[in-house]
């Protein structure tokens, strides 16, 4: 009996798929930090549960766990500029956070203008039928999704 394929062939999906860079978006807040994960190949970003912790060691610890679990290739951080494009205290804090995050996590941090991202998130949920409380819990992650989509659109 002749063999149709006289060689041994194995399939390993990891060998056929090139690594697609993953990005973790961070929408900093004083109490809640919105997060989203996405990749540039598909342009799809998905919200993650928010980190509920004020600025400080606890927030860094929680973010470190997420970075370790999700292994992003880069972070995308919202840069809160004034409506006229000027930078204020919040933008300086975001830049300081970006520098520390790059050092702590060893990945590049890209800053993205976050003007109106929370408003866009609210508008996206406007006719969703969600209660006020449900919207509040989803707003941070959706704002982070908006940041990633902006980054993908300009990258």
From TrEMBL:
Top-level taxon in the UniProt lineage: Bacteria
GO cellular component: cytoplasm
Subcellular location, principal: cytoplasm
Keyword match Transferase: no
One GO biological process term: rRNA 5'-end processing
Family: Belongs to the YqgF HJR family.
Name of the protein in its database record: Putative pre-16S rRNA nuclease
Source organism: Phycisphaera mikurensis (strain NBRC 102666 / KCTC 22515 / FYK2301M01)
């Amino acid at each position: 009996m002749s063999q149709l394929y006289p060689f041994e062939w194995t399939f390993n999906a990891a060998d056929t798929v090139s690594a697609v860079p993953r990005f973790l978006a961070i929408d900093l807040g004083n109490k809640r930090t919105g997060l989203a994960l996405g990749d540039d190949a598909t342009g799809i970003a998905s919200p993650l549960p928010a980190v509920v912790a004020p600025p400080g060691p606890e927030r860094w610890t929680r973010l470190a766990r997420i970075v370790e679990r999700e292994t992003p290739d880069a972070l995308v951080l919202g840069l809160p500029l004034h409506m006229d494009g000027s930078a204020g205290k919040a933008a300086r804090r975001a830049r300081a956070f970006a520098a520390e995050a790059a050092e702590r996590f060893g990945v590049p941090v890209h800053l993205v203008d976050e003007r109106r991202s929370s408003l866009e998130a609210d508008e996206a949920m406007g006719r969703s039928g969600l209660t006020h409380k449900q919207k509040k819990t989803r707003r941070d992650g959706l704002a982070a999704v908006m940041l990633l989509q902006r980054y993908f659109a300009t990258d």
